[in-house]
């Protein structure tokens, strides 16, 4: 039985944090057991905000090493760098030629800029971001794309663009579907907002134990005294604890919150210990991978070679439908 193909990417805009880990990386690792998995480091997307070549190269390796340390097996899943598959840029052009301006004006990035009065300041790359993202997805005949709930719009736009191209040239592109983990939607940051590098509220996945504990202890809480009962559902610490603790441990912490006599310091220590149990054993593998940049490059380039076989096949199908000649060899 042929397995469905999953695809997802992550931008190398800094060291991966727990939001990346639980929102994308952990689901990606799990899907390699049931799907034909393709995952890429989206370095081209990172160019819309970053201008530091050395940081881009380092972040690309950090993302790849994090995914590998978390259990991604390059023998079973295809891990590659986005820019190593240049076919994606051509497909983005073909999609752009059939995509209406109105669709792009409804994209999250543009709407946010418009609301902030920055619509005339954003780059073409930022404005056209959804087109390149659609090309990323459609170039590999993906069946499903694991995403957070706040990213579903990107998949819907890719579906629309595939529909537009197919309406003109026949069924040349496969329509993907979003795959949202219901138990992991928005990962809360240390200040209660969505965990994001732009907010400065992240906790890096493989930071050293002392730094991890300091970050956890800095999570924002209210001023309810230790002896008073507390409501767990509204607490940032408890929300993160639910991601890493067992159901029994979560239930026990909730009961202690409601009973009183249990302070946020106790909860933060429990969260730190649970995080260490989850990601601590992976830290050594991550450090070893980061110490071998040539080895990381070999994995990424091998993945790109395999990804390009699929990409060229899809692009040939598109070019034939459009009326363009076959790709030069």
Give the gist of this structure:
With 329 residues, the protein is mainly alpha-helical. Helices cover 54% and strands 7% of the residues.
Strand content: 5-15%
Q: Give the class from helix and strand content and strand pairing.
A: mainly alpha
- How confident is the prediction overall: mean pLDDT? 94
Radius of gyration: 21 Å
| β-strand number | 5
Shape: globular
- Summarize the helix and strand pattern as letters: EHEHHEHHHHHEHEHHHHH
- Per DSSP, the total helix count is 14
Q: How widely separated are the two ends?
A: 32 Å
Q: Tell me about the biggest sheet?
A: 3 strands, parallel
Strand order in the largest sheet:
1-2-3
In words, what does this structure look like?
- This protein is mainly alpha-helical.
- 54% of the residues lie in helices and 7% in strands.
- The strands form two sheets. It has a three-stranded parallel β-sheet with strand order 1-2-3.
- The chain is globular.
- It starts with a strand and ends in a 7-residue tail after the last helix.
Name its key features.
two-stranded parallel sheet; three-stranded parallel sheet; mainly alpha; 329 residues; 14 helices; globular; 5 strands
């Amino acid at each position: 039985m042929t397995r469905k193909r999953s695809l997802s990417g992550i931008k190398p805009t800094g060291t991966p944090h727990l939001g990346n880990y639980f929102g994308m990386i952990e689901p990606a690792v799990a899907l390699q057991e049931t799907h034909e998995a393709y995952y890429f480091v989206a370095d081209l997307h990172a160019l819309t905000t970053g201008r530091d070549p050395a940081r881009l190269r380092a972040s690309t390796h950090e993302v790849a090493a994090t995914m590998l340390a978390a259990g991604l097996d390059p023998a079973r899943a295809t891990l590659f760098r986005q820019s190593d598959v240049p076919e994606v840029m051509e497909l983005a052009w073909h999609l752009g030629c059939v995509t209406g301006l109105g669709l792009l004006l409804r994209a999250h990035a543009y709407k946010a800029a418009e609301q902030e009065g920055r619509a005339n300041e954003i780059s073409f790359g930022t404005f056209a971001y959804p087109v390149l993202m659609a090309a990323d997805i459609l170039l590999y005949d993906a069946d499903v794309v694991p995403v957070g709930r706040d990213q579903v719009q990107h998949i819907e736009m890719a579906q629309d663009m595939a529909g537009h191209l197919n309406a003109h040239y026949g069924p040349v592109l496969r329509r993907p579907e979003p795959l949202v983990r219901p138990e992991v939607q928005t990962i809360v940051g240390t200040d209660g907002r969505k965990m994001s590098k732009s907010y400065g509220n992240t906790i890096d996945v493989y930071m050293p134990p002392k730094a991890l504990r300091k970050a956890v202890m800095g999570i924002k809480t209210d001023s309810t005294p230790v002896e008073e009962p507390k409501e767990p559902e509204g607490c940032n610490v408890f929300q993160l604890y639910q991601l890493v603790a067992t159901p029994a441990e979560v239930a026990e912490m909730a009961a202690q919150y409601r009973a009183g006599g249990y302070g946020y310091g106790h909860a933060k220590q429990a969260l730190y210990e649970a995080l260490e149990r989850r990601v601590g054993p992976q830290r050594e593998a991550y450090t070893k991978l980061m110490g071998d940049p040539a080895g990381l490059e070999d994995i990424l380039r091998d993945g790109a070679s395999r990804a390009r076989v699929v990409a060229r096949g899809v692009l040939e199908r598109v070019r034939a439908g459009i009326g363009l000649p076959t790709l030069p060899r």
